[in-house]
Structures are given as structure tokens and as C-alpha cells.
Amino acid sequence: MECTYMAPTKRRGPKLAQDSTASSKLHRRRYNAGYVVDLERRAEQLERALKEHDPDIVLPESTNRYVAVSLQNNSSRPASLTSEVVELDDDFTDLDLGEKMKNLSLEHDKSLSERCFGPSSGLALFMSALSTKKKLIGSLTTMQIHDYSNLYPWERATADAEKACYIFPDNDLITSLVAIYFETMNPILPILHRPTFVKNVADGLHLRDENFAATLLFVLAVASRHSDDPRVLADPSSRLSAGWTFLEFIPIAKKVLLRPPCLNDIQQTVLSVMYTFGSSVPEFTWMVVGLGLRYAVEIGLHRKKPKRHKPTVDDELKKRSFWALVTLDRLLSLYEGRPIMMQEEDFDVELPVECDDEYWDIRLDGEVRFCQPGNKPSKISYFNAQIQLSGIMSVVVRNLYSIRKGQDKLSLPKKDGDRIISDIDSSMNAWMNSIPDHLRWDPDRDNKLFLYQSAVLYSTYHMLQIYTHRPFLRPGSSLSTPSLVISTMAARSCARILQVHLTRLKIITPHLLIVAFMSGTVLAMNIWSGKRVGHPSHADDLVGYEQCLATFIHASDTWMIAGRSLKIFKGMASFETTSALDSTSIPITHPQDSTAPIWSSYGAIPDTPYEQVQPSDPTYLNDYLPTYLRTDLPLDQTNENSSSSFQSLIFDIGQSEMSSGPDTINMWTFAPPGFNFAAWDTYVTNMSLEDEHSQ
């Protein structure tokens, strides 16, 4: 049957407001003037070398692909996003290098042609020289370089060492864990094609292919955290050991140092992150993601394919795996307070095709046609939405959390904090408006898969709100009060999402653990500061904080990171709570009983741009609060009274909602800039000691 539906290619990444911002100017591949000058200098050196070798040689006139660049006074003034930037059309030079290496008559190991080399590489210059020589002479002689391109005997001995001896569980357990994996983790990081993977397992590929065997073991390990089967435990007395047996003999880097990475290697790094985030060393995941991205770039996964290329199953899975690594890199970098490895200008690969696994039409020649029915929402829509949100996350890290802020590093015109937040806020609003209907938040949604994806999307969105406003929680900032309000509302929203998620789905993921830690921290700071100044804690803060605790309690028997979070949160809880941290008293209600009325009144994202909202505006909170928390105020107040009215509004929301606002902001001043475990553990310990001494 001929496929009649072809999913359109979508542009990647969200754009910020269409002004000269970092995100709107850096979404395309660019080379600056200095780079072009360097290329021209190297080309001149090559021409001189050829002339010295053969004085009679006639070189063809240069055909410059680049647009003209003005270099006058280039060193006397800093470059900016509006200065001379060399834009390139679709450049597949680095992709063509591999093909040329395959066709070149060299005695070399084929691995060289499987690796990706950019246009600035020495190999690119070498191939350019050979191309020029071929035009002049008409042919190329075989080059004997095998002594340097092949592995030496001692290297070959390591590469050809005995195969790993993997031990697999019973077939029924394999079948069960594979099914669990595709129901829990693949919906949010879809790096595996279920029909192909299941068929390969059924055919016993893991018994013949070492690389696929390792991938299967990673899948079994990740799924083990969601299984009640005692056979997944390395230590029968501890569920924290779930899955460890499957990974015990799998080295992360393996022998990839002696050969080009393959799809299985890339997938294994993603799976490793899923598993090790719940281990006693979650920080290790950030390094694994970096390794995976290096693997991906090594074989050119960061580049889009030429239009003439016919997609295969591996092509689409490589694309998905690359994007999974990019999103994880951004999330973990933000969470750990570390730099993001790859920026938007470093890759141009397309977004994944929004076609579910069951609608892949795989031909005999390996080509795949994507035949998603037009009236059926795709499960991959979530992944693309998450990718786009992570693009905004990258801008937040670069402009608000980098050692040298983005505007300084890029020599941008200096911007005020409210302008930066306005740009990010506009992008987040645009992103929210672009979410397809089947992913919009509805706690009563019948389709649990889409509810799951929606919970991860919306909680990540609110988490990013907190990260965006965290740098402005400091005394003296005109944005401190609105930033505190928005952060508080975002934290409460996350807590409600967690409540619905744990009630209906009970699936724990790294995303949700990070969300619980961040939102719980914000709410704890509110409660803690309120106690310090003698004000009662707001009920929503207490309920939200306890929901975050419930998340960690629920996950602490299988996720070590949840146990660490629980320890820190108990240290924060020097205030009185209704449950006294007793997990048995934390209510887990059904959404139809309590959460549905709340969420049914929760609007989308306020239409009022952040730049138009100032603390003196009495309608500010009405723009940013859920409707059930809004307070009606007259809109015709005079300017003299508007500021005091705003302050009164803050203090009057739901039983002195922000009554401890100034003290809370002071506490945030000395709090860790990010949400790193060790930093917060130290901060909480010091604050507890300070409270003890003050009593």
C-alpha cells in the first residue's frame, strides 16, 4: 500500500522575541569574520606550497562562497549580533568528506570514513589539496599510509579481546521488563523503535551482537526500577539495588575509543543517564551526557541530511537519540549549575518526525516512510515540544547563569534584567500557545500516556519559570517581589501536577524528581522565612511542600537521589507541618475529589507581557496568579496609591500569602544559586544552626 501521508519537516527550536536577542540571532549556523580570514590565510598557504612544488602550475581562480565581510576597524570595536556575520547556506562539506574518504584509494581502516570532520579540520584542507591536484593532474595515485591509519598490534589486541560475557535473565522477565520500559521511559525519551527492538529480542540478536546485548541490558536495568519482580534486585533486602545486576559488567566507554561510535553506543549513554541519575552518584550523569554528545558529533549526528538522502530506521533513531542527549544536557546543566555543552549554533539537525512507531513503513531496502494518520495525535509531539522548551532553557542558562553572562560574552548591548526576562517570558508564552490539544494539561484526561507526557511538559515549564526568576531574588532588585510571587505560584503548580501524577500514574522519572526538589525548595523557603518573622504559613505552601515530600517518600525505596532529597527536606522542615513529616498522613487524593476544581480554574499563561508589568501595577498578580487566587481590585486607582495597593495585595492573598516576602528574599540572597544537592545540604545545615543559636 502506498503511503499517502508524509509528515512535514518542522523547523527546530523556539525563537525569542524578534529583536536582537541571543536566541533569535543564534538559531542559525554562522561563521564570524575572523573564521573566514583564517580560512583565506590557510588557502593562500596551500597555494604557495603548490607553486613551490610546481612553478608552472596554473591554479583556478578562487570562487568565494562567502558573502562580503567588512573588516574595517574590526579590532577597535567589539562584534555584536548585528555586526558582520557570515551566513552560510546549507553546507554539507563535512558530510561529503566521509564520502570522499570512502572513494579515495587509501590503505586505511574504514573507521576514518565513518567519522565526521568539520570544514576547519586538517582533513578538510587535505582533501581540498587532493581535489586541486586531481583537477590539475587528472588522477591520484594510491597513497601508502597504512602504517598510520590502521591499529597497531597492541591496540588490535585490545580491540579484539574476548567478548563480554553478558548474563541475561529468564525470557519471561526480559519480556516483562521490555514492556515496562516502553510504557514508562520511552514515552518521554523515545530513543528506541519498539517494533524493531522487540523483534530483535525475539530473534535473539542479543545473543549474537555484543552492542545490542549491552543496549538490552541497559533497558532491563532502567525498567527494573518500575518492576515489582524480586529477580531484578542485586540485593534481595534493598530495592535500591534494582537493575544493578544487569549493568555490573558493562563499561560505559567500552572499546569505542578504538572504533567509531554506533547507534547502540549513543542509545546506551541515554539509558545510562536514566539509570545512574537514581544512583548514589547522580552527578555522574552530566559527564555521561557529555560523552554521549561527543559520540554523536563524532559520527555527524548533529548535522541534517541532504535533501537527496533517503531516511532509514537508524537515521531517525540517531536523530531522536541526539535530541535526547541535547535535552538532557540542558536539563542537567541547569540543575547542576554547569555549562551546557552544545549551543544552538553548533548543530542543524531536524526535529524528529512526528510519527508513532507503529506507523513506520520500513521497505526492504531499509528506507522508511512515515505514515502517521492525519487525525491521530502523535506521541512524538511531546518530544518535539520538550526539545523546543529546552531551547529556552539553554537561553536561560547562557544569559542568567553563565560565569560571564550572555550579553557580555557575546558583546551584546547591555540589557536590564526586566528586558531579559521579558524576552524569555515571551518565548515561554509562545511555546505554551504552540502545545497541541492532546498535550494540554487536563487532570481528568482518559489517555494516561498523554496525561503522563503533559505532566512532564507542564512541570518542566513551571520549573523553568523558577529558574528564570531565581537570579532576581535579591534585596534591592525591582524584580525581587514579582519574581518571588511567580516562583511561588510556579512551585505550587508543580506540586499539584505531582499530586495528580502520583495519584493516577505513579511513574517516577528524573524530570519529576528535579521538579519536586526545586518546587519544594521554593515552598520551604517561604514557610521557613514566615516562621522567622512570626507569620503563619500559607496553607497552599504547606500542602505543596508535603506533596513534594510525598514524591520523595514514594521514590526513596528505588531512587537513591530521592532519599538524599528527603534528608535535605527534613532538614529544611524546622517549621510546623500538619503531618510532622509522617508519610502515612500525607493525603494522596483522587483528582476528581480535590485537584480537578483547582485545575479547571487554572488559566493558561497570562497574556500581559512581563515588560508591561511593574510592582506598582495593581493588576500584576491578576495576570500571573491562577483565577482561584486572584483578588478583585479597582482598576482606577491613582498612581499615588497604586504602589501601596500592590503591597497590600501581596500581603492579603490567602491569609498573608507573601507576608514574609522581604525576609524570604533575604534568605534567597545567601542561598545556593542553583539546586545542587551538596550546596543545599550545606546551606540547610548552616541555617538550622543559625536558628538554634538565635533561640
TrEMBL record:
<feature type="region of interest" description="Disordered">
    <location>
        <begin position="1"/>
        <end position="24"/>
    </location>
</feature>
<dbReference type="Pfam" id="PF04082">
    <property type="entry name" value="Fungal_trans"/>
</dbReference>
<dbReference type="GO" id="GO:0003700">
    <property type="term" value="F:DNA-binding transcription factor activity"/>
</dbReference>
<keyword id="KW-0238">DNA-binding</keyword>
<dbReference type="GO" id="GO:0003677">
    <property type="term" value="F:DNA binding"/>
</dbReference>
<dbReference type="GO" id="GO:0006351">
    <property type="term" value="P:DNA-templated transcription"/>
</dbReference>
<protein>
    <submittedName>
        <fullName>Fungal-specific transcription factor domain-containing protein</fullName>
    </submittedName>
</protein>
<feature type="domain" description="Xylanolytic transcriptional activator regulatory">
    <location>
        <begin position="285"/>
        <end position="358"/>
    </location>
</feature>
<dbReference type="GO" id="GO:0008270">
    <property type="term" value="F:zinc ion binding"/>
</dbReference>
<dbReference type="InterPro" id="IPR050987">
    <property type="entry name" value="AtrR-like"/>
</dbReference>
<dbReference type="InterPro" id="IPR007219">
    <property type="entry name" value="XnlR_reg_dom"/>
</dbReference>
<dbReference type="GO" id="GO:0005634">
    <property type="term" value="C:nucleus"/>
</dbReference>
<keyword id="KW-0479">Metal-binding</keyword>
<keyword id="KW-0539">Nucleus</keyword>
